[in-house]
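Thread: "does anyone have the structure for this chain?"

Original post by V.I.:
We have the sequence but no experimental structure in hand. Need at least a predicted one for the grant figures.
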Amino acid sequence: MCPYQNLLPAYAEMEKQAKGENEMSFFGHNDKKVVKSSVQQEAANVNVTPEVVNAFPFIKVPVVLGEVTVQIDLDSTITFPEPVLEIKVIKKSLKLVQCRLLLPTNKLFLKGFVRKNIQYATPNKGGKDHVSSTIKSLTVDVPFHVVTQIDFISQPAFKMGPKTSEFKYFKSSPLPTGFSSKEHLLSGDFTEFNQISGEVFNELPFCELLSSKFIEMDEALNREMGHVWSHDGEICAPFEEGTFTEIEEKMVIELTLKVLQNQQVHIQEPPRHESSCNYEEINPGSDSGNQGHQGPQNNGRGGGWRY
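Reply from O.Q.:
Generated one for you, tokens below.
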């Protein structure tokens, strides 16, 4: 008897199962679960009235000092590490590293950079009617720093520290030999230093970036038509093609941001405006002694309500 004869039924069963799994997975009838789902039952809830300890408290909340759109103009040059046939995609994102309101002025200092991911095609080989390229990417940071003025819609909370002042104590000292024994030196005490000073800690304003918009134009600086270069040197390519390694970028950035400061605010009850209007129904056909209610009548001039 062949020693491998006992293994034939097992191999046949495994082959049958594999074939069945492939067929069932193709037609979507595989017994193996890929997605498990269940229907969730809706739970009941009860409305609860919040407990109010102080109806009109003093609270400390961020207060909007101003909301502005700042325009920043940039002109930069970007150098690629290899020859570029063409630029495919440029993705941009704005990053702020400083947004500082210099109190007590309205000057806002901004510092940051634009992160640019440039996808480009660099040639490998070519012919008279084609160029084969590899898609690569270059990520650069284009920095900027500007100062702008903002118009306050809410005044910032800012206090100056108390003025530093000095004072002295009166002192009477005896005079040395040569002066009358009845006389004394009347002056301040030079052996001590007295001062009144202090400091005030203000809330530092902060910023929130809301949106950004980019308007840009990228232009190749050293492109020569008819000359296509790769890592191995100049290659054959169609006459209209060319490579470059530097681009000049002109970009206008419009960023919208919000300047805030934590301030103490007193929540007050809104004023109640009582209506001073008296509604009286106009009834042209009734006299002043008629106290009954009648609907408005149309006398040609139109009935209505008089305030």
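V.I.: this helps a lot. The longest helix spans residues 8-27.
O.Q.: and The chain is about 5% helix and 50% strand.
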